[in-house]
Design brief:
This protein is an all-alpha fold and 97 residues long. 55% of the residues lie in helices and 0% in strands. Keywords: Bacterial flagellum biogenesis, Cell projection, Cilium, Flagellum, Repressor, Transcription, Transcription regulation. It holds the Pfam family FlgM.
Length: 97
């Protein structure tokens, strides 16, 4: 059996939701994508939340990054190396437990 390589492209949460609804509609005999059937498929709130998490908009706090970038540029960023070291040691201890 040969597996064909495909290009992995990111897709939007809307596209994922549409695909999921289409798959459910097809599995249960409904139509999707402009069909004239009156069947409707609704995703649960949990599945909608999971789709929303996939869009990546909550991954980076843009305002915080901008503030840090400005502090670095102006030379006002103070790095507490002792705090960083303490956190690394605490993290290592947690991993060893």
């Amino acid at each position: 059996m040969k597996i064909n390589s495909t290009t992995n492209r990111p897709i939007s949460a809307d596209a994922v939701g549409t695909r999921a609804e289409s798959a459910v509609a097809q599995a249960y005999g409904g139509t999707s994508g402009g069909g004239s059937s009156s069947s409707q498929v609704a995703l649960s709130s949990a599945s909608r939340k999971m789709l929303a998490l996939q869009d990546g908009s909550n991954d980076i706090n843009v305002e915080r990054v901008a503030a840090i970038r400005a502090a670095i540029a102006s030379g006002q960023l103070k790095i507490d190396t002792g705090r960083i070291a303490d956190s690394l040691i605490a993290s290592a201890r947690d991993l060893l437990k």
